[in-house]
Design brief:
The structure is a homodimer.
Chain A: E1 5-9, H1 12-24, E2 30-34, E3 40-42, E4 45-47, H2 49-59, H3 76-83, H4 94-108, H5 113-123, E5 129-132, E6 139-144, E7 147-150, H6 151-157, E8 164-170, H7 179-185, E9 192-195, H8 200-208, H9 211-219, E10 224-227, E11 230-231, E12 234-235, H10 240-246, H11 253-260, E13 266-270, E14 284-287, H12 294-310
Parallel strand pairs in A: 1-2, 1-9, 2-5, 9-10, 10-13, 13-14
Antiparallel strand pairs in A: 3-4, 6-7, 6-8, 11-12
Helix pairs in contact in A: 1-2, 1-12, 4-5
């Protein structure tokens, strides 16, 4: 069946809500449009971290502690790579490697990232669409006080420690949007678009930087709702708050809503930020947004979907 | 120091004697020239099975049971590759993968197979030279009753079951020989060249098919000695005897000596084949050539080196 809810997501933070949506919606009702601007080639392998996190998370294969990579992973490859003097700043587990090697092979043989991702999701038994935002390269490049850095160098190699001056989504301006996402966004059966609580500048902005995606989101008749990644003036996880400060923004849920601007038809923020709701100029759902347990994820997913449906 | 013994080897069978030589000669006294006509690209990775077997064997990292690959290997990658529907007819262990991925990366960056192999040998603490026969592609192609087959398809994929009509060493005629091997073969300090008991047609013939290598072996002043891979009318391991039959040759140690022909200055054959020695037309060493234990390998290595030195 055609998806009725389209979620936009980066990696770990977004995948939590995506999992809640997946577990509470019916089979085939969810599609997730995923950031690919973190993708990179490493050791000759094409790695798509956010797509992988979604695949592993929805398949029930993700490591519950780390949030990325495979559960019960082993690290023999990395130990031997180190022995050989290879680059070891980016960890690739033995299980995880299979996806990188096989995907790289298929890409070189001419398959699209969308087709490969769909086939892997099928192999994993996932009854949702996982859609890379584009089959063309878009790359997040950060200007920092440590120089101009590729995303993974900044995020993994340097643990997001450099001060960010500006962010470029290289290639986004000319990238074609995922055609299935465009057709979903134009489909009258679509009930809601949900911007997951991913990092707005690192995970959601690259999708919005693809002109056809932004235009389709603006034109979409279904309500667009974002869940704030900022709770009580801090980020749940990752460098969102740090980056907001470096970009000169107040670290508030309201600043994130302003960043998304006219795209939004509704906003979901945490109880601790309830005082901000009246001034958003938007319908708001105030609820508990911190997702620690499976129940948290499912409850929030249900509430967000119900809230969005009310906005229609 | 410059090597004084140059061994020519394929994979498993040859590596046994190479290990015996390595353990009984002094540091730096051994160089091994290795077949690369079994090399292939698989899943986008450059795999050099015989070079790897030599690296792992001399480093003490080889699996003692299988004879190929790493000891205490794990197979998480393969299990996941299978789950993804990837090609699983060629087994790649998690540890082993590190070498394939890192070597492929370095080859794409422009390094030569010789340079990479030397660096890995250094990393592994190997005090011998491991020299790929050529930095250019030579590929063993078999015409069989199952069609024309790449080596690994024939050997691993089809377990050497098809009947072989003829064998081509594609690219050998125009391949440049390993320059370090050429310089060793021309070095007055070289004391012996030893053809290990590898499969003559699949493992040694590709080296001899490189014109500069054959010429250098013919011109070499040091004695060239082969150790028979045929013992008592059968091969110790692998398809040597089967291929000899299919090529219309008698399965005897003498037929192998005739195949090597004028290259040889001496021949080492098993006690069970002692009756063949008088008719070889060559100096012969008759001894126990089956290598099961480390002692077998070391004793045979010492005897072969002593025999070769007598021929000078």
């Amino acid at each position: 069946m055609t998806a009725r809810i389209l979620a936009l997501s980066g990696g770990i933070g977004g995948a939590k809500l995506a999992l809640g949506l997946y577990q509470t919606l019916g089979a085939g009702e969810l599609a997730v449009l995923v950031n690919t601007a973190d993708d990179f080639e490493h050791l000759g392998l094409y790695i798509s971290p956010d797509v992988d996190t979604l695949l592993y998370t929805l398949a029930g294969l993700a490591d519950p502690e780390r949030g990325w990579g495979r559960a019960a992973e082993t690290w023999q490859f990395m130990a031997e790579l180190r022995r050989l003097g290879g680059e070891d700043w980016f960890s690739l587990g033995d299980k995880d490697l299979a996806l990188h090697v096989e995907r790289t092979r298929q890409l070189r043989a001419g398959a699209s990232l969308t087709a490969i991702t769909g086939a892997v999701a099928g192999r994993f038994g996932i009854q949702a669409q996982i859609l890379p935002m584009s089959d063309q390269p878009v790359r997040t490049i950060l200007s920092t006080d440590a120089g101009v850095l590729d995303f993974q160098r900044y995020f993994v190699g340097l643990r997001a420690q450099p001060v960010v001056h500006s962010i470029e989504y290289r290639g986004a301006g000319t990238a074609a949007a995922n055609p299935e996402a465009l057709s979903l966004l134009a489909d009258p059966a679509l009930e809601a678009v949900i911007l997951c609580p991913s990092n707005p500048w690192l995970s959601i902005a690259p999708l919005l930087a693809v002109p056809a995606l932004r235009a389709a989101l603006s034109a979409c008749r279904a309500p667009v709702v974002a869940v704030s990644p900022i709770v009580g003036g801090a980020a749940i996880k990752g460098p969102t708050a740090k980056i907001m400060t470096e970009l000169g923004l107040p670290v508030t849920a309201a600043a994130v809503a302003r960043y998304y601007g006219e795209l939004l038809d509704g906003y979901v923020l945490d109880r601790s930020d309830a005082a901000l709701a009246p001034d958003l100029g938007l319908p708001a759902l105030v609820t508990a947004t911190v997702m620690k347990t499976a129940e948290d994820k499912q409850r929030l997913a249900r509430e967000v979907v119900a809230f969005a449906r009310q906005l229609t």
